[in-house]
Amino acid sequence: MATQKSGRxxxxxxxxxxGRRAVLGAAVLGAGTAVVGLPGVARADEHGHGHxxxxxxxxxxxxxxxxxxxxxxxxxxxxxxxxxxGAHVIEQDIVPTKDGHLVCxxxxxxxxxxxxxxxxxxxxxxxxxxxDGVSLTGWFTEDFTxxxxxxxxxxxxxxGTRQRNTLYDGRWEVPTLEEVFRWADxxxxxxxxxVWLHIETKHPTYFRKLGLGLxxxxxxxxxxxxxxxxxxxxxxxxxxxxxxxxxxKLVDPPLVVLLSGASSRPWDFVEAGDPRxxxxxxxxxxxxxxxxxxxxxxxxxxxxxxxxxxxxxGTPTTLVKDAHKAGLxxxxxxxxxxxTFLPTNFKKGTDPNAYGDAFGAFKTYFETGIDGIFSDxxxxxxxxxxxxxxx
Length: 391
What we know:
The chain is of the alpha/beta class. It is 27% helix and 16% strand.
């Protein structure tokens, strides 16, 4: 299993991976506050002349749905805080509206992430649907025009766990992807450094069957904002390999196949009758297949280090070594600070909503040789990264 210490990685065969890049200096003022002193080491790509994702610091810190540990997810407030904290890349999930606009929501079901239930004018829109084989009852973006969706306000998705985030309920709208591109361009000009994004197509087969295919409008927007090139500052990702294959024919940014639990099957495989599971995709032949159209994978952390029956971390798999051998980078998901999300050997105390030993968990995952990690708490991730790179 590849391990990484003292700025480089070594596999059991003695093969050395590229050295770690310079760490960004970080000083955290407290949970939910900005990390200061983070313009970082200047790189060639900061003014648009670099080599794309290969210029990013490694391990790369990806702000999962923005700084979602501190602000309602997928809002401009969440994205702004993540950028101010120094996250290397900021994630967007995209779903369509009824009139074909791409908006940033983790799911098309907006029941838990907006105040739609408080709008009597939309009460009749509540319905039950089957999305990727799962029955859901609520309100869905594809039943709203963009103008209607803009009358709603975002709220905290898990208020029981993140009660402090509810302070910001109602503060921000649901952003369109185009608004995020404009925001990123503005911030990039002001900072003299490109803003990196990690854009996921959600339920692409489901939406294509509704006549709301995601890939073509996404590609159109990427071209409009000059983010369609190999060196452009964004990754494109999906849990459905066919969505990545489609994007591979439309645009040139780095592509990432997301991978859920080992026994699961991508929904496009289910629809197409492809019997392969994620367990098949992480075998050498599956990795070689994905490497034919993608530059990376985004596996759940359990595929990197499985958990034992008691919920503690077990022995790392060979996935990191195997993926690197196939030429793929790995951006696994998702690290969160709260006990309820941590392996049992990194929990502290009995309060599930209290912070556990997140630094210890980060260190363990970084030591496997992963190239980056998604985190709801990018300030914690950046400090853990600094400890790891300088350790």
